[in-house]
Structures are given as C-alpha cells and as structure tokens.
C-alpha cells in the first residue's frame, strides 16, 4: 500500500506497476499483501494500471486446484 488508494502490484508478465483502486472497490474490498488481483494496464502508460477485482487466498487456492490459473 502506498496511500491515497494506490498499490504497488507485481504482475504475471514480470512487470511491477502502480495500481489504482477504482471507486467501486474503494469502499467494498480491503486489499492485502498476497491477494490475487485482476488488473487492466493503462493503454498510454504501461507502468500504471487499474485494479478491477480481488481474490483472497481461499479463492486463489480453488482457482489453482481447478486449473484456471
């Protein structure tokens, strides 16, 4: 967490991006270290992204068990 609804995100392509928590998620979901996130990189700045959805550890385990990730 960097403050002001920004997070440093390590992506599966090896890049580290600055993620912004969108307004809809800001009040509903707490993002912790180790959570799996779905992000959308910005088209004009590749080092920044928007956070779209969050999976907690149990949901990530289920996705791995069923070969989705």
Count helical runs: 2
CATH topology: OB fold (Dihydrolipoamide Acetyltransferase, E2P)
Low-confidence regions: none
Mean pLDDT, rounded to whole units?
82
Fraction in beta strands: 35-45%
| Assembly level | single chain
**Text of the CATH class:** Mainly Beta
Q: What is the first-to-last residue Cα distance? A: 25 Å
CATH superfamily: Nucleic acid-binding proteins
Q: If you compute it from the alpha carbons, what radius of gyration comes out, rounded to the nearest whole angstrom? A: 12 Å
Tell me the structural class: alpha+beta
Structure description:
By secondary structure, this protein is an alpha+beta fold. It has one domain: OB fold (Dihydrolipoamide Acetyltransferase, E2P). The protein has two helices and four strands, in the order ββαββα. It has helices at 23-26, 57-65; strands at residues 6-10, 16-21, 36-41, 48-55. Strands 1-2-4-3 form a four-stranded mixed β-sheet. The longest helix has 9 residues, at 57-65. The protein starts with 5 loop residues before the first strand and ends with a helix. The mean pLDDT is 82.
Could you give a quick summary of the protein structure above?
The chain is of the alpha+beta class. Helices cover 19% and strands 36% of the residues.
Structural descriptors:
alpha+beta; OB fold (Dihydrolipoamide Acetyltransferase, E2P); 4-stranded mixed sheet
Show the helix and strand layout.
Layout: E1 6-10, E2 16-21, H1 23-26, E3 36-41, E4 48-55, H2 57-65
Parallel strand pairs: 2-4
Antiparallel strand pairs: 1-2, 3-4
């Amino acid at each position: 967490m960097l403050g002001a609804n920004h997070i440093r995100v390590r992506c599966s392509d090896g890049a580290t991006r600055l993620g912004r928590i969108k307004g809809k998620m800001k009040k509903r979901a707490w993002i912790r270290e180790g959570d799996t996130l779905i992000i959308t990189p910005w088209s004009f700045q590749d080092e920044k992204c928007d956070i779209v959805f969050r999976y907690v550890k149990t949901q990530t385990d289920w996705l791995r068990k069923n070969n989705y990730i």
